[in-house]
Design brief:
Helix content is 37%, strand content 27%. The chain is α+β, with helices and mostly antiparallel strands and 479 residues long.
């Protein structure tokens, strides 16, 4: 794990963004809590996604489906049978790993050592293994032939590769007995598919149209690591767009670009984003690409865009006995719609924003750590400081605080030196700091300091909201 990644993780705890769940008891592996700043950042991202997906599209509506679903849902979707990862154990340490990720890390190491030809050969072999009828044996053969050692122990003593189902099991009712088994949903998409008619009919939508949802999902990951990038409890923002068969690939291309544009609208540097075509298509897909971000830990998926064909609705029709067909009154034909899916991990998006925003620079011999968030997603838009705690300055600062709260989230701070107050807000990602000083008593103006440039402007108190709105509207990642 890189030094930059470690700094981000440390800053998240120090400033109240994200910290280990149940930390006083030693923590629970791969589960995290969002603190005061993390909650605000998360809410701002969710609001921005909902605005882009639902409010800006008259053909997309929202849904909030239950986490618990009938067990047959997961039989129909294929999760009961096929929602697996390849598991391998290091006999020396007892640690478990995903076999495909072991090989991917090995390939990455070869490339770093400038063994490009060998890395490409192993990569091609990995792709063949993932698409073979006997994936387990094919992955095991690569590990043996390349003598890939365990990352933690350094041993070369592996069990065979086997499949591990990722769903969490639980039970409903007072007794743990046969027939009471349920699963925590491993994705939010199935709640959309089973409610296709329940949503479409009341709002009188015709194909093409979409259903959007934000919610928790749960996966019993073999190796949950890298902070909030891979967790066992996480949040997804998904939209399933129902289309006429034969039009799905055009819609797939449209949504690919829309989703890339959205990530860039958050202030993410375009050079850090890319599309990555799937080398192994899921059983339900006829096209799939990821949007990847270059994290300090390498290029990783943030969002998946998939053309899911009619697999989901057809399977739910088969398993439930209920018709999932749609009658098109314009074309006068009946069919089961195809689906184009956009699925973005909210927690991964938060980690992407933290990684992209984190910046260090030397200022008068000291290191200044800054989170350069887009002002619209920053947890706090503006902080208000009285220069001193006397002469009526706190009273004026509180009046400004009350006025600006009608427009966006703000913070009042009167503790410590001005330098320390600025540094706290820099690390929190607050784009504007407002200082009430003795000149304010004479001319009703305050000093507004810009987080990124550290430039300061004198602004009339009654123009503060307009000033901040204008600065927010013209903000760019390039400054």
């Amino acid at each position: 794990m890189s030094d930059l990644f470690d700094k981000i993780v440390s800053l998240c705890k120090q400033r109240g963004f994200i910290f280990q769940s149940s930390e006083i008891y030693g923590g629970l592996s791969a589960t995290y809590d969002y603190g005061p700043l993390g909650v605000e950042l998360k809410r701002n991202v969710k609001d921005r996604w909902w605005e882009a997906m639902v409010y800006q599209h008259d053909d997309i509506v929202g849904l909030d489906a239950a986490i618990f679903m009938h067990p047959k849902t997961w039989e129909a979707s294929g999760h009961t049978e096929a929602f697996n990862d390849p598991l391998i154990d290091d006999k020396a340490s007892g640690n478990r790993y995903r076999a495909d990720e072991l090989i991917e890390d090995y390939i990455r190491g070869l490339r770093m050592d400038d063994e490009q030809e060998r890395a490409e050969a192993v990569h091609k072999r990995l792709v063949r293994a993932l698409n073979s009828d006997d994936t387990n044996d094919a992955l095991y053969a690569i590990i043996q032939d390349e003598e890939i050692r365990a990352p933690d122990s350094g041993a070369f003593d592996w069990t065979e590769v086997r499949q591990f189902n990722l769903m969490f099991e639980t039970h409903m009712g007072p007794l743990k007995e046969e027939g009471s088994e349920l699963f925590l949903r491993p994705e939010t998409a199935q709640g959309i598919f089973v409610n296709f008619h329940n949503v479409r009919e009341p709002v009188r939508k015709h194909v093409p149209f979409g259903i959007a949802q934000i919610g928790k999902a749960f996966r019993n990951e073999i190796v949950a690591r890298q902070f909030v990038f891979r967790m066992r409890e996480f949040e997804q923002m998904e939209m399933q767009y129902f289309v006429k068969p034969g039009t799905e690939l055009d819609r797939f291309a449209e949504w690919k670009q829309k989703r890339m544009d959205w990530h860039q609208s958050l202030g993410i540097r375009p050079s850090k984003l890319r599309f990555h075509e799937h080398e192994q298509l899921s059983h339900y897909a006829n096209a799939a690409e990821d949007i990847q971000y270059e994290f300090p830990i390498g290029w990783k998926e943030v969002e998946g865009i998939h053309s899911r064909t009619d697999f989901d609705l057809s399977r739910h029709q088969e398993y439930s006995g209920k018709k999932m067909t749609y009658y098109d009154p314009f074309e006068e034909e009946r069919y089961i719609p195809y689906v184009v899916e956009t699925s973005v991990g909210l927690d991964r998006t938060i980690l992407m924003l933290l990684s992209d925003a984190y910046y260090e620079e030397e200022v008068r011999g000291d290191t200044r750590s800054v989170l350069r968030f887009h002002p619209e997603i920053a947890p706090t838009r503006a902080a208000i400081f009285p220069l001193v705690k006397k002469e009526g300055l706190p009273e004026i600062a509180h009046r400004i605080e009350d006025d600006l709260r009608d427009h966006f989230n703000v913070l009042y701070d009167e503790r410590g030196s001005m330098g320390k107050r600025y540094r706290r807000q820099d690390e929190a990602g607050t784009p504007f700091c407002i200082t009430v000083d003795f000149d304010t008593l004479d001319d009703q103006t305050v000093t507004v300091r810009d987080r990124d440039s550290m430039e300061q402007d004198r602004v009339a108190i009654d123009q503060l909201a307009t000033y901040i709105h204008d600065k927010t509207a013209t903000w760019s990642v390039d400054g």
